[in-house]
Design goal:
Blueprint: E1 5-9, H1 16-30, E2 36-40, H2 46-53, E3 58-62, H3 79-83, E4 89-92, H4 95-100, H5 105-117, E5 121-126, H6 130-134, H7 138-149, H8 155-158, E6 162-165, H9 179-197, H10 199-204, E7 206-210, H11 218-222, E8 229-232, H12 239-246
Parallel strand pairs: 1-2, 1-8, 2-3, 3-4, 4-5, 5-6, 6-7, 7-8
Helix pairs in contact: 1-2, 1-12, 5-7, 7-9
The structure holds phosphoenolpyruvate.
């Protein structure tokens, strides 16, 4: 049985003092879990988060990176800038980046490749909108996101990637997919990966659910066979709630 990978996405929240407080509260609350714990914090909190979590079981991730190593890309951060300060993970292609900042399957692929080359572990987000689901296009959208967004990713590279299935209609809305909806969608995503990489590789791949997962619904979602963990937004900002998600699955 796989352990679970639970990642918090702080988004654009927590200044330095709030970050320090939250991490210090979290450390003792998650120290006994067998699950992998990751916190993806704003760029300005990364150094502090790496320092505070040293010697603990909490890993640190960023929320984006660029595909170039350096150059005239104002406002962007290179993958090596993250690894050099001890960051291990990076979220790529979150739906908020796709909808507000023009992220496409092609830029997702570029960022993922660059992150892997620098030694980061990407958490690549995919997911359909409510309109896409209601119009019967969920499967075609997820297929496109996998086929295009992982175009020249090798099976070896896939080993270092986590996929987060996040239905856009469930992110930050308080509306969670039911355990069955999340399990079925992730099962479908896994079947698309299986077509490309074979069943064994697809079975090994970690696919998280994200979308209003919290201390109340985590146990049900994480007990589903296809769901290998969670990407948690709002509930990751409260140590008590996030630790309950981490500890929901023994
Ligand atoms: C997210 O930001 O990836 C997310 C799932 O947010 P929330 O848990 O707040 O829905």
């Amino acid at each position: 049985m796989k352990n679970k990978i639970i990642a918090g996405n702080w988004k654009m929240n927590n200044n330095r003092a709030q970050a320090i407080e939250l991490i210090n509260q979290l450390i003792p609350l998650v120290k006994d879990t067998n699950n992998t714990v990751i916190i993806c914090v704003p760029f300005t909190d990364l150094c502090k988060a790496v320092k505070l979590t040293k010697g603990t079981n909490i890993h640190v991730g960023a929320q984006n990176c660029h595909w170039k190593e350096s150059g005239a890309y104002t406002g962007e951060i290179a993958p090596s800038m993250l690894t050099e300060i001890g960051v291990e993970y990076v979220i790529i292609g979150h739906s908020e980046r796709r909808s507000y900042f023009g992220e496409t399957d092609q830029t997702v692929l570029l960022r993922t490749k660059a992150a892997l080359a620098a030694g980061l572990k990407p958490i690549v987000c995919i997911g359909e909108t409510l309109e896409e689901r209601n119009s019967g296009n969920m499967e075609s959208v997820l297929t496109r996101q996998v086929v295009e967004g992982f175009k020249d990713i090798s099976a070896e590279e896939l080993d270092n990637i986590i996929v987060a299935y996040e239905p856009v209609w469930a992110i930050g809305t308080g509306v969670t997919a039911t355990d069955e909806q999340a399990n079925d969608a992730i099962g479908f995503v896994r079947s698309v990966f299986a077509q490309k990489y074979g069943q064994e590789v697809a079975n090994k791949l970690y696919i998280q659910y994200g979308g209003s997962m919290n201390d109340k619904n985590a146990q049900g979602l994480l007990s589903m066979p296809q769901i290998d963990g969670g990407l948690i937004g709002g509930a990751s900002l409260v140590a008590d709630k996030f630790s309950k998600v981490v500890n929901a699955h023994k």
